[in-house]
Write a structure and sequence with these properties.
This is Transposase. The protein is an alpha+beta fold and 662 residues long. It is built from 21 helices and 17 strands. Helix 4 crosses helix 5. The C terminus is likely disordered.
Length: 662
């Protein structure tokens, strides 16, 4: 690509990136330097499908790029030199008369009684078959190929050895040598998209799914007690091992879309170890249920081990580039877009997804598979009878962990954890370890560029602004030589109180900390971006940066009863805060503690006193007939309110809850 073509390509690419970022169309046209009609024409070329199954993308912006194979439009004439013949005549013959091409392919694939295999067909037999097909098409003696001395004998033989064998070699090898030889040919001589064989824990698959169940969020009101707000439908991401079908992680995203940070947190938990679910459901886990990296007898084999490849769901294709950039240099593996498989091609994963869907379709408030699903009308309920969002997230997480201790057809009806233990003890799990220097969660991110600022006349020492927050450190305060210099920041997306600062050459500078209220509570990148969005729309009031947590929390609590998305966001904020004990804001801490008390009452009410051991834990071994005959308590009278205490919320479904159908 020449300098002028490169400038044109970069100009058009910048314009389309601005268009994808929802910038005004006039600014995009100004950057592109083209008219309105030409801009949409180029956009259509970028969105056209490529033969590899993906869109053309920015490949279509290169000068001279062809979306379809070249096709000759001019007529074929004889060359001036008698030895030249008719250049391109045979290709045009097959294009104008498709029946001739189909007849030749059927002859070489032995689909006719007189057919021959490519390795047995002679040049004379192929030439005679071509002449027969041409006469059937009504070609005269003055038309090609009858008006040549060779009658296209050389051309059809060359076509068989180049074009035909390249297109049908796989079918020929399958007929001659069997299915195993065809698979070997497809992988060794294919286009790089063949499916290789991966060992245990060597290839991971990330799928996106929609939780077909309505959830609720309980809100503490000073005047009305507990309010119930319906949340929007949640999106979930699940990760599995391609070889053993073991569940490596499963979580619900309490927002409208999945981000790169969510994917990186899922991968990081599968490498470092995951946290227990927020909702403490009684009797939720089978004995030994866990993700592989946390399982007994597997943690020392799998901790800090990285896969060779990660297959990403095509529903997450818009995040593939950033996800690949963040993991390629760190893990050394390759992020691939998963094929649009048929269900039978990865039966173990589709079976697990089907079981999760069946679980969600039994819950109160399920939406079913669509508006016409009869279970949707049967399970309809008012918001106060719906399942809490935290309980729903805990149920999904518990479901995935239980799948790892249940027999699976993909591993000869062993449990996935037992299969991995046996393979690990035999030494079959040979994975690369994450380097010791990279065993930090802040490496699982996209590096961000920041500029160091200072103003000694106003007493402002060196600092930088990163996502609406100011960062400083004792080491940075004395580095006045870094003024107006750019550096790189790495961070852990689940906690932005502390980030790592790097020089432009990649050498580490050290840790820097957020100042002000941002240092007082753990918060994620999602919360920081939510704060910036609400502040931009002037929804948080004046000086919201002095009280970020209170401003966002109070705003979401006020609008959650009318906005389903706000209710889901409020559930995610409380989930973020409940994972930490260091909440220093009294009012929010009081609401969180009240919520924990209510959940403890629900858990205690769902488990009769007789089913508990002397230490207070729940016993799963007592399955006597007397306990089976014990009546199910009324959900509205499980916990008796004390004087002066608000009425507790409805109970969440537990072990005593029965499915709606089947």
């Amino acid at each position: 690509m020449g300098p002028s073509d490169r400038k044109r390509y970069e100009r058009l690419r910048a314009a389309f990136e601005a268009y994808a970022a929802w910038q005004p169309l006039q600014e995009c046209l100004k950057k592109a330097g083209v008219s309105y009609a030409r801009f949409h024409q180029l956009l259509g070329r970028c969105l056209a499908m490529h033969r590899d199954g993906r869109i053309q993308g920015f490949r279509a912006l290169k000068r001279g790029a062809h979306l379809r194979p070249k096709r000759r439009q001019a007529g074929v004439t004889a060359a001036k030199d008698p030895r030249g013949g008719f250049s391109g005549a045979f290709g045009q013959l097959l294009e104008l008369h498709s029946a001739i091409k189909e007849g030749l392919e059927a002859f070489l694939l032995a689909k006719k009684p007189h057919g021959r295999r490519p390795n047995r067909a002679t040049r004379h037999e192929l030439k005679k078959e071509l002449e027969r097909l041409c006469r059937l098409e009504g070609l005269t003696e003055r038309e090609y190929p009858f008006n040549t001395g060779d009658k296209a004998g050389c051309a059809v033989w060359k076509w068989k050895n180049t074009t035909f064998l390249e297109e049908h070699a796989l079918d020929f090898i399958r007929v001659e040598n069997g299915e195993l030889a065809a698979n070997l040919w497809e992988f060794g001589e294919g286009d790089g998209e063949g499916k290789p064989f991966y060992g245990p824990m060597e290839a991971w698959v990330i799928d996106e799914y929609t939780a077909d169940a309505r959830g609720k969020k309980r809100i503490k009101s000073e005047s009305l007690g507990w309010l119930h707000a319906e949340a929007q439908r949640f999106t979930g991401i699940a990760m599995s091992d391609l070889n053993s079908s073991a569940s490596l992680g499963d979580r619900l995203i309490f927002d409208s879309a999945v981000t790169v940070s969510d994917l990186l947190e899922l991968v990081c938990d599968a490498i470092f170890g995951s946290q227990p679910p927020i909702a403490d459901l009684p009797n939720e886990l089978e004995p030994g249920a866990a993700f592989p990296v946390d399982a007994e007898g597997l943690s020392h084999y799998l901790r800090y081990k990285v896969p060779k490849a990660i297959y990403l769901d095509r529903a997450l294709a818009h995040l593939a580039n950033e996800f690949q950039f963040a993991l390629h240099a760190l893990l050394g593996g390759l992020v691939k877009l998963d094929f649009p498989y048929q269900p039978h091609s990865r039966a173990q994963i589709e079976q697990k997804n089907s079981a999760r869907t069946h679980l969600l379709h039994q819950l109160i408030g399920t939406t079913g598979t669509g508006p016409q699903d009869p279970v949707r009308k049967v399970a309809d309920a008012v918001p106060k009878d719906l399942i809490d969002a935290d309980v729903l997230a805990g149920a999904v997480s518990a479901f995935s962990r239980n799948q790892n201790v249940l027999p699976c057809e993909a591993v000869a009806y062993l449990t996935p954890l037992e299969y991995l233990r046996r393979r690990a003890q035999r030494g079959d799990i040979t994975l690369e370890s994450l380097p010791v220097d990279c065993r930090h969660r802040y490496f699982f991110c996209l590096p961000r560029r920041v500029t160091i600022r200072m103003d000694l006349t106003k007493g402002r020492r060196p600092h930088f602004i990163f996502e609406y927050a100011e960062y400083r450190s004792a080491a940075l305060n004395s580095r006045v030589d870094l003024d107006r210099r750019f550096m790189w920041v790495r961070y852990w997306g689940a906690d932005l109180r502390t980030v790592m600062l790097y020089y432009p050459d990649g050498s580490p500078f050290g840790e820097v900390h957020a100042v002000g209220r941002w240092q007082k509570f753990p918060h994620s990148m999602w919360f920081r971006l939510l704060f910036g969005k609400l502040k931009k729309h002037k929804a948080l009031g004046p000086r919201a940066e002095d009280r970020p947590l209170e401003a966002v929390y109070h705003y979401l609590r006020d609008v959650a009863t009318q906005d389903r998305r706000a209710a889901a966001q409020l559930a995610r904020v409380e989930q973020m805060l409940m994972a930490s004990d260091g909440i220093e804001f009294f009012e929010i801490r009081r609401d969180i503690e009240d919520l924990r008390v209510q959940e403890a009452r629900v858990a205690e009410a769902l488990n009769p006193v007789g089913d508990r051991t002397p230490d207070g834990s729940v016993s799963n071994d007592e399955t006597t007939a007397a306990s089976d005959q014990q009546p199910v308590p009324d959900a509205q009278n499980l916990a008796r309110p004390e004087p002066g205490v608000a009425t507790p919320p409805p109970t969440a479904p537990g072990a005593v809850w029965k499915p709606l159908r089947r």
